[in-house]
Design brief:
The protein has helices at residues 2-13, 30-41, 69-78, 90-95, and strands spanning 18-23, 46-52, 57-62. It contains 4 helices and 3 strands; from the N terminus they run αβαββαα. It has a single domain (16-101), classed as Alpha-Beta Plaits, CATH 3.30.70. The radius of gyration is 16 Å and the shape is globular. A 3-stranded antiparallel beta sheet has the order 1-3-2, with helices on one face.
């Protein structure tokens, strides 16, 4: 019984993942970072998210059998952030805290 549970766990862990790097010009603070991590972590197929504020980049590790780069970019846009060539959802952007709508990083 133990061995079979271990093998199932190992097979799940070994599933193929890809990494997507996304540029977003309107990441300006740690609140942006937390918003993106929290919002993306709940999306199907996303395994890990990291946001690099100074570089204005998002690294997403995902399962390609569960989601696609286009879906991930759309999810970022729905959170109120630009995602490569995908424009932010303006209603979501307006709901962001004031610090996230600043012109300059802080």
């Amino acid at each position: 019984m133990r061995v079979s549970l271990f093998l199932v766990g190992a097979l799940l862990w070994a599933q193929k993942v890809d990494t997507l790097w996304v540029k977003s010009a309107n990441i300006v603070c740690q609140t942006c970072r937390r918003t993106l991590i929290k919002g993306l972590s709940t999306q199907r197929g996303i395994r890990a998210v990291e946001v690099y504020v100074p570089e204005k980049t998002i690294r997403v590790v995902y399962r390609p059998d569960k989601t696609t780069p286009d879906r991930i970019r759309q999810a970022i846009a729905r959170l109120g952030y630009d995602a490569d060539g995908v424009s932010r959802d303006w209603k979501a952007y307006e709901r962001l805290p004031a610090c996230c709508k600043a012109d300059k990083p802080h």
